[in-house]
Design brief:
The protein is about 35% helix and about 25% strand. By secondary structure, it is of the alpha+beta class. Helix 1 packs antiparallel against helix 5, helix 3 runs antiparallel to helix 4 and helix 5 packs antiparallel against helix 6.
């Protein structure tokens, strides 16, 4: 398709840029939903009662028919109305169950999506009326500017406090990073058992996260079972959730755990996370490795990840794994019975 009018280029540019930005945010954690991924999956919208995704094929058809400005303008206007109808929904299905999450804010991706259709409709309407190219360009620029200025006001002043959350997140992340870092004072190689308090692993890294505009990866899970199954431990222990003063000891093949009143482990891995509002979307905390025989600290690691920007602090590697940290400090190797693979 030959782009022979500036307003067509402006519209296509807005649409292309919107795909790299979040369309909206879900839940208390303000989880961004990438526009590109929604372009691939939004056709399922009718199953959830909304049809806004179908603005995309209408918009594409309006571009294809750009040499017929009247028809193109009408199609783009209908596409704009369909796209704007998404504002009537305040929650959306996020699984097949289905389970729902609230839409708490709209992103720049959604604003640019609307702007692409609005500028195309206005520009084509003016062409159909015989307006000069300069006037058409000026009018479409003004239209696009009004849409984006309206979203900017929403972003800065809206009741969702999206801008305020961004500012608060930046301040909190800077303060947390001032405490981040790794210190290994000494290492060990005589490990039979470890007390995990709690039995929990966190993994974070600054990696590409397609379709959300951020760059991170994260995950969590139990840690003791993995080391036990690999033959790196004879046993591990953790707190008994049903008896706060007691402990559970796990050996290979024992998935229930034996109740014990005193720890037999030589070392403890203690994980602590600061209390933070979910909307800040900051992961991290402090992992401390102690020798339980003399209460000395072998190593500590404090790390944080801003899930919105992908920024990480805590070490020069740009990543942290509790399991890897424990393996390095305590010199874990396969020397006990393990699960055969």
């Amino acid at each position: 398709m030959k782009i022979d009018h500036p307003h067509l280029a402006l519209s296509i540019l807005c649409f292309a840029v919107c795909l790299a930005l979040p369309a909206y945010y879900l839940g208390d954690a303000f989880e961004p939903q990438g526009s590109a991924s929604l372009l691939l999956t939004g056709w399922l919208g009718p199953f959830d009662g909304h049809f806004s995704w179908y603005a995309n094929p209408l918009y594409l058809l309006a571009l294809v028919l750009h040499r017929r400005p009247r028809a193109s303008s009408i199609l783009a206007l209908i596409a704009l109305a369909l796209a704007a109808s998404f504002l009537l929904h305040n929650r959306i299905a996020v699984s097949e169950a289905p389970t729902y999450q609230s839409i708490v804010a709209y992103g720049w991706g959604y604003a640019l999506w609307l702007t692409a259709m609005a500028t195309l409709s206005v520009g084509q309407w003016l062409r159909a009326r015989g307006a000069q190219s300069g006037r058409t360009t000026a009018a479409t620029l003004a239209c696009g500017g009004m849409f984006l200025a309206g979203y900017l006001a929403y972003y800065l002043l809206g009741g969702h406090a999206l801008f305020g959350a961004d500012q608060e997140r930046d301040r909190a992340f800077a303060q947390l990073c001032a405490t981040a870092g790794e210190q290994i004072y000494k290492k060990a190689d005589d490990v039979r058992g470890i007390f995990f308090d709690p039995d929990w692993e966190q993994r974070v890294s600054a990696r590409s996260h397609l379709n959300t505009g951020t760059s991170y990866a994260s995950g969590s899970g139990v840690i003791g079972l993995g080391h036990l199954n690999q033959g790196q431990l004879a046993f591990y222990e953790t707190r008994d959730r049903h008896a706060p003063e007691g402990y559970l000891q796990f050996k290979l093949g024992d998935f229930q755990g034996a109740k014990v009143h005193r720890l037999a482990s030589e070392y403890a891995v203690i994980s602590a996370t600061p209390a933070m509002p979910p909307r800040l979307n900051i992961l991290g905390g402090t992992v401390t490795i102690k020798d339980l025989r003399d209460s000395s600290v072998l190593a500590t690691a404090t790390f944080f990840l801003d899930q919105r920007s992908g920024k990480f602090c805590g070490n020069s590697r740009g990543a942290f794994s509790t399991s890897h940290f424990v393996t390095e400090v305590l010199g874990l190797k396969k020397k006990y019975a393990s699960v055969a693979k």
